[in-house]
Amino acid sequence: MAGLLTQSGLLQAAQTLRTGIAEVQTLAHVESNGQGFLDDGRVTIRFEPHIFHARTAGRYDANYPLLSYPDWNPKIPKSTTHSYQLFNQACTLNATAAVLASSWGMFQVMGFNFASCGCNNLKQFVSLMEKSEDSQLALTVTYLRTTGLDDELREHRWEDLARLYNGKQYKRNQYDTKLASAYAYFSRL
């Protein structure tokens, strides 16, 4: 299995973001239950059919209705295994769109944010996501700083962070309340 998140990685991220380790752990917990890799060593992903639809102008909607559709459905994919099934199928149709339409690693950064993570291309982004959880965290730190979301995390503005990080449907999955609850837990440790 690839390298797990280290204490030094957490400390470096907290210092760079000018926040505490609890805030970093909060984001990891809510986004992926703190797991950047599956037991078999593959990076944790979530394939998003509505993003694949957007990235392919809906051209696969009719023939692949579970793989591509216009509106977000929180019930699909059903699991990480299902995500990989959809992702692999989408790769056969349009590999670039499949990577862009998936969230990656412990912090579930969308592939279409690769440049905001400091990557020159998708290949570099995926390679670094597959390297280690510390590498996933470093990409996420760059993403948070590049997009200005470090302030929301640092200031515990959970609703703003959830809306900007997870999208306008964040309330349907209660991302804001999950962030607040997770922070309450991790800040006590």
Automatic annotation (TrEMBL):
One Pfam family, short name: Muramidase
InterPro entries recorded: Muramidase (IPR024408)
Domain N-acetylmuramidase: 22-186
Domain of life according to the entry: Bacteria
Name this protein carries in UniProt: N-acetylmuramidase family protein
